[in-house]
Amino acid sequence: MTKEECFYLGKIVSKFSFKGEVLIKLDTDEPEMYTEMESVFVEYNENLVPFFIERSNLHKSTLLRVKFEDIETEDDAEDIIGCELYLPLTMLPELEEDQFYFHEIIGFTVMDANHGNIGEVMSVNDSTAQALFEIKKDDKEILIPMNDEFIEKVDKKNKIIYLNTPEGLVDLYLG
Hints:
six-stranded mixed sheet, single chain, SH3 type barrels, about 5% helix
């Protein structure tokens, strides 16, 4: 299993008990969806390693408290603190037609109501307060906030995102 075949689920942030339990900060709006998992992939020494889950439950509603098989002590748990967790893309829940996962739209063409084809989605930057489409047009990079007011339609079948951006926004990059 490679990272490209997976989605980022979260990160092991701390030890919870002396019996090897850990707390995982999940990257999801619906952490309760992940309380019944049997296993996850843990990125360890740059490899995705399957870890099997003995038990898990939500802790303070946003963290997942997990007891992995073969992680029996505080030292074992300490060894995996900071590791990132992944699940196969096939485990992502289906979304409504007008919703999308960030990885799904890479390579989509972006059509703007005012400028026509403004390029291709290269990535999504979600490290800022508002996620941004990172669009490449020839040798220029265009950053467009992923704002519901700008997104008119996502045509998954034809791999096109239709935007209606405010006047002047695209011109900042192309002008």
